[in-house]
Amino acid sequence: MCPSKGTVWIFILLFVKNVFEQEGFGRQKRGYRNINDIEVNMSDPLFTKQWYLINTGQADGTPGLDLNVAEAWQLGYTGKGVTIAIMDDGIDYLHPDLASNYNADASYDFSSNDPFPFPRYTDDWFNSHGTRCAGEVSAAANNNICGVGVAYNSKVAGIRMLDQPFMTDIIEASSISHMPQVIDIYSASWGPTDDGKTVDGPRELTLQAMADGVNKGRGGKGSIYVWASGDGGSYDDCNCDGYASSMWTISINSAINDGRTALYDESCSSTLASTFSNGRKRNPEAGVATTDLYGNCTLRHSGTSAAAPEAAGVFALALEANPNLTWRDMQHLSVLTSKRNQLHDEVHQWRRNGVGLEFNHLFGYGVLDAGGMVKMAKEWKTVPERFHCVAGSIQETHKIQSGNKLVLAINTEACQGKDNFVRYLEHVQAVVTVNASRRGDLNINMTSPMGTKSILLSRRPRDDDSKVGFDKWPFMTTHTWGEDPRGTWVLEVGFQGEEPQRGVLKEWTLMLHGTQSAPYIDQIVRDYQSKLAMSKKEELEEELDEAVERSLKSLLSKNN
């Protein structure tokens, strides 16, 4: 029997509450970006190949995975008034894409002791390294030559110091301390040999030069040292490189154009952030496009050598936005504005530390975001005074054997009640003296009171040392940034590898570096706790929905 009209209308009134006329509007697929849709127009022929500046999917890359320089440029920041020194094998300062931005007064050749750091000629163009790095930072824009620098209106200085039979402490120290009131940022794409068996770092004069730089450079705001984390791949650990693992440097690792790690990337807990280098695929346009020797251009620059100058360029944009930034401000900004984006590592997962900051053992706090950094830099207030606390020390000898981990603990109040109390962490150092029958099989982990685990030393399969070991070596981590250091720190030392090994740990001293106040950390903690509470609420709601669904299914099955 059919219902009457009245019945039908009652049915409609019960179930239709409101009627609206719908307006049509646009929606666009996320991911792919056409370079013409981004309001950056450059006449330089390689600009569209510079995927690390604006990634639209060139060279089989992942769209959107870039340094976000377009946003910084559109805000008006291009590196004006900032000088970056490339400490390397020289710069072709006659190159038409570099000449207009070359700072001759701030340049010097410490290999030949003259003011002309031009690369020494070789048939294989071996000394092209510095010129390629310089182009990444300061290549001029809109001149129809090569590509564009990250900070294309910055000044670049050449410090030639690598091209000689051997390095000396005085050459390194002189280079790092050259004209610190003129040079703002020093970019270094070099370090100890990346052979997986070297443990080395700066000597006495260079250490003093670095300390003077961060304390006295730039009128007391501090020289900014950018360091490539190293190209030793999975065979090495950048915490064995005393330059990259120094608190005074910003250690930069690299990702390739699809977000994976490069095969030569080293991992360690001292890496702060990442930029980009060449892709794994044999696409000829997957490398870093930049200037080359004798007026040429290249698409084949690569390695973490390419990553450090990109970071120096981003920091130059931030310094233009706020010239008062200190060397520590730049590190804080790197931690706060770097993004996970689409970076992924097959070995190390992304994790959150005790205050909710997301980090990765290889990528640090993520890829630098130039737009985010300049926006935060504009409003940034200088971080509070830094303090150092010796949190505790274990000097007794402890044996280490394969199959058994040595576990030691230090309980600390972080110098609370004293002038040097550290409440909010920046850098943490575990100063360790240890010897082993095979140093390369050693594995050292440290866990903070807030539960953050740092891998201080990974296995290095090529390191056969059985005599030298580590002598008061400062293993450094940035992964506990912002945490409260008070409580129990745990050090775990063991062996990895097929053959049984033995060793002796003679010292572990815990060094804490940080501040007594950090308002932004408190805000991060509140936001993180709010997100956790929300996620737990959503989990409970999901569990409730699932329970209701199960109950309904059970009821229906019984009725059937």
Automatic annotation (TrEMBL):
Gene Ontology cellular-component annotations: extracellular space; membrane; neuron projection
Main location: secreted
Protein name: Neuroendocrine convertase 2
Job of this protein: Serine endopeptidase which is involved in the processing of hormone and other protein precursors at sites comprised of pairs of basic amino acid residues. Responsible for the release of glucagon from proglucagon in pancreatic A cells.
Signal peptide per UniProt: 1-21
Family that this chain belongs to: Belongs to the peptidase S8 family. Furin subfamily.
Top-level taxonomic group: Eukaryota
